[in-house]
Amino acid sequence: MPLSPEILGALRLACGEAQVLTAAEDLIPYGFDGTAALKQLPGAVVFPKTTEQVAACVRLAAAQGVPIVTRGSGTGLSGGSVPIADGLVLCLVQMDRILETDARNLTLRAQAGAVTLKIAEAAAEHDLFYPPDPGSMKISTIGGNVAENSGGLRGLKYGVTRDYVMGLEVVMPNGETVRLGNKCVKDVAGYSMKDLFIGSEGTLGIVTEVLLKLLPRPAARRTMLAIYDRMEDAAETVSAIIAAKIIPCTLEFLDRMTIGCVEDYARIGLPTDCEALLLIETDGHPAAVADEAARMEAIARQHGAREVKAARDEAEALTLAAARRNAFSALARKKPTTILEDVTVPRSELAEMVRFVAATAAKYRLQVGTFGHMGDGNLHPTFLTDERDADEMSRVHQALDAIVAKTLELGGTITGEHGVGLAKKQWLRAQLGDASFALMRQIKQTLDPRGLLNPGKIFD
Ligand SMILES: Cc1cc2nc3c(=O)[nH]c(=O)nc-3n(C[C@H](O)[C@H](O)[C@H](O)COP(=O)(O)OP(=O)(O)OC[C@H]3O[C@@H](n4cnc5c(N)ncnc54)[C@H](O)[C@@H]3O)c2cc1C
């Protein structure tokens, strides 16, 4: 049912006339996220500027039983911020203020719509470091990062968004605002409620403010590129580095298709005649960095790297990292539809998984570029296809099913960082088992009994 003139009037009164969009042409950009082939027009998009405005919108929607989808920048890759037909989208991008950098406690407080890169830059102004760096960090919001528990290129050593969240302010489905966590390094007063909301994909509450942990900036860094003629050798190198008890900050993988697309796009001189590249980065104390870099270079060579090149300077290191960040965008230029997988396996199973993805692509006659956070066991096989081609799409779906089934067989997970959303929900029960799946639904039912927040995401 379309939103009533009464609720639209009340939303305008609460947030301001210009903060509410309802014209079809204005709604279109908010009808999809970064996930292929999923779209739906909402009834209205509202841009609150304060927590009080978010709470007012939630109370108005709840009174009329209108579903709400919270949205950051819409870069999600599992359909999490795709609207509900005629529902409300609360887009938090105008709640983008960095509220405090506390150098004495090594914390930073920001509104949920603050862009991830701005948070990293605000920390760097105080010579501090916010490590999570998703490939989308120039655009994604910190609220979206928390809702997806996003990872990044430095996840191997520094962990994911969850590891840096000390506190949250959350508007609950009934419009109440709760504050969870604080600046204390230790706090065991009751359940760790903030953790429930991290990775909850906008289904339990709306994050309006975050309190983040910062680290001192590492004193030194070294970046290397290892070049391979066999994909499996790159995978074996990753397993061998981990087995040698070295934890570099970055161990990223690009296959031949991805390298070619990135080089076409960015023209930075990547070798296009190889089968795979590993981007390896270590940081920390200069002596430790030198030692780890030398040991990793030796391991890469022992496992078949035909060449290992060190970045000459900071500028070259940044260019290489940027090339990896551009992998998805570069692949997306190749065909009209890009379907990105996010499977993650124990690192000992990487070579097997890489082989399986290549064999599956060949079996179903599909173009697949694979890249990913290989040090985390997280691969992004990316199908380059065309959603108008029904026969090819059917083969894509068969291949996806096979890859997910293999992932579960190897003890992996259906999503390492992009979330379940709409794209992965058909496989969630298979991964969790009936009892854990039922427990998750009970939590949703308890916190959002009327199913108003992001209905249909994660579960049917
Ligand atoms: C080129 C590219 C590279 C990427 N690289 C990475 C990567 O390296 N690692 C990674 O993990 N992901 C990556 N992603 C995926 C995506 O950027 C992340 O999931 C990101 O955290 C989404 O942030 P967003 O602000 O765009 O959120 P949206 O896409 O707007 O929303 C994502 C989900 O979070 C919910 N949500 C958003 N804000 C809030 C809030 N304030 N409160 C409650 N729920 C909220 C939404 O309802 C939705 O379910 C990449 C995406 C692209 C397009």
Can you lay out the helices and strands and say which pair or pack?
Layout: H1 5-15, E1 20-21, H2 24-27, E2 44-46, H3 51-64, E3 68-71, E4 88-91, E5 98-102, E6 107-111, H4 116-125, E7 128-129, H5 142-148, H6 155-158, E8 165-171, E9 177-181, H7 193-197, E10 206-213, E11 215-216, E12 220-228, H8 231-243, E13 250-255, H9 256-266, E14 276-284, H10 286-302, E15 305-310, H11 314-325, H12 327-332, E16 337-340, H13 350-363, E17 367-373, E18 378-385, H14 390-409, H15 425-432, H16 434-447
Parallel strand pairs: 2-4, 3-4
Antiparallel strand pairs: 1-2, 5-6, 6-10, 7-11, 8-9, 8-10, 12-14, 12-15, 13-14, 13-17, 16-18, 17-18
Helix pairs in contact: 1-3, 8-10, 8-13, 13-14, 15-16
Bound molecules: flavin-adenine dinucleotide (FAD).
Residues 33-34, 69-77, 80-81, 92, 112, 134-136, 140-141, 143-145, 147-148, 150-152, 201-202, 206-207, 328-329, 417-418, 421, 454 line the site of flavin-adenine dinucleotide (FAD).
The molecules bound to the chains, other than polymers, are: flavin-adenine dinucleotide
What is the tally of helical segments? 16
Beta-strand percentage? 15-25%
End-to-end separation: 20 Å
Note the main sheet: 7 strands, antiparallel
Mean pLDDT: 95
Radius of gyration over all CA atoms, rounded: 22 Å
Q: Give, in spatial order, the strands making up the sheet with the most strands.
A: 15-12-14-13-17-18-16
Helix content: 25-40%
Looking at the chains present, what oligomeric state does this protein adopt? single chain
- Describe the global form: globular
Strand segment count: 18
Low-pLDDT ranges: none
User: Helix/strand-derived class?
Assistant: alpha+beta
